[in-house]
């Protein structure tokens, strides 16, 4: 999933998020439109050269391509492992202003068994933290749920992608992001250990350590150095692979961060991408709901995937 110069395509926007992104591009959102768009992404010719896995949401996982194959079946035939987002979203954490905790543990074992039977190779669960709202309790609460999710995945033979995302909205500097990311990852690995999660069988999906998007930017080499320092202090070498989210950064920036990080000597883990927006935003814009635009949209997707894959090499 994280080696061989390939990465993971995050195409698992919930129905609500995907519909909002379509509306922003002037595309009427419907189940059929979301299916057509995801089919366009998955069937871009040669996707598997730079993409090892695709994360789907429940709706897409159960849909069929126009040739009748289910998305997981088609993905495997195209050389791309199918994955499934299994969290059900976030809810406020009482007593902790603006903090969120991710839900979805109830009935998760049965859902994982069903996804495994239908071909899922891996799963994904995302916890989300604000730089200033992620206190120790918030980090621990989300770390605990991520650990329970990961343990359940391993029980069902599914690789868990463990995604603790520290948001980059805001005008904070790089040190604030580093401090919060360190706290979040530190608590997370304590919880994974307590839950008995086999670290050699997970993929970590963190944010890059960057200043807020509204703060002055720093050089990609500074992002890579800060990111490596935080990961080196928190992520055990037993973790085989780290696949970064793009977090709203421009494609060119996310790829530059990855390129610099790939060049850091002495890394114990493979590093790659699990970008969403940085890979697909151009394609959605170019497609705009018109099948005639599909080839140009697919070419834009492939260009971004190749750039990200190249950054890992
Ligand atoms: C693709 O978006 C994923 C699901 O988001 P919602 O549950 O809010 O619809 C999201 O988890 C995504 O996989 C990660 O945030 C990475 O995406 P970016 O765009 O940050 O690279």
UniProtKB/TrEMBL annotation:
- BP GO annotations: glycolytic process
Q: Keywords in UniProt for this one?
A: Glycolysis, Lyase
What Enzyme Commission number(s) apply to this enzyme?
A: 4.1.2.13
Q: Which family does it belong to?
A: Belongs to the class I fructose-bisphosphate aldolase family.
Q: What pathway does the UniProt record associate with this protein?
A: Carbohydrate degradation; glycolysis; D-glyceraldehyde 3-phosphate and glycerone phosphate from D-glucose: step 4/4
Does the keyword Signal belong to this entry? no
Protein name, entry field: fructose-bisphosphate aldolase
């Amino acid at each position: 999933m994280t080696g061989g110069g390939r990465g993971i395509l995050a195409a698992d926007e919930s129905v609500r998020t995907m519909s909002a992104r379509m509306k922003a591009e002037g595309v009427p959102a419907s189940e059929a439109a979301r299916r057509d768009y995801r089919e366009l992404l998955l069937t871009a010719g040669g996707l598997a050269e730079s993409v090892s896995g695709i994360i789907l949401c429940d709706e897409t996982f159960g849909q069929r391509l126009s040739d009748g194959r289910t998305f997981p079946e088609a993905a495997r035939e195209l050389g791309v492992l199918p994955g499934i987002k299994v969290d059900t979203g976030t809810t406020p954490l009482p007593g902790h202003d603006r903090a969120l905790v991710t839900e979805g543990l109830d009935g998760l074992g049965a859902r994982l068994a069903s996804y495994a039977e239908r071909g899922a190779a891996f799963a994904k669960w995302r916890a989300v933290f604000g730089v200033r709202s992620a206190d120790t309790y918030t980090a621990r609460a989300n770390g605990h749920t991520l650990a329970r999710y990961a343990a359940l995945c391993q029980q069902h033979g599914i690789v868990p992608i463990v995604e603790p995302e520290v948001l980059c909205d805001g005008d904070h500097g790089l040190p604030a992001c580093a401090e919060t990311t360190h706290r979040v990852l530190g608590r997370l690995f304590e919880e994974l250990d307590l839950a008995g999660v086999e670290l050699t069988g997970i993929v970590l999906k963190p944010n890059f350590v960057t200043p807020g998007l509204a703060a002055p930017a720093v050089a990609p080499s500074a992002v890579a150095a800060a990111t490596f320092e935080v990961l080196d202090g928190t992520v055990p070498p037993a973790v085989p692979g780290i696949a970064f989210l793009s977090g709203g950064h421009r494609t060119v920036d996310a790829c530059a961060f990855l390129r610099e990080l790939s060049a850091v000597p002495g890394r114990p883990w493979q590093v790659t991408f699990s970008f969403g927006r940085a890979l697909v935003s151009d394609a959605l814009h170019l497609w705009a709901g018109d099948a005639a635009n599909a080839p140009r949209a697919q070419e834009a997707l492939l260009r971004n995937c190749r750039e990200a894959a190249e950054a890992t090499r």
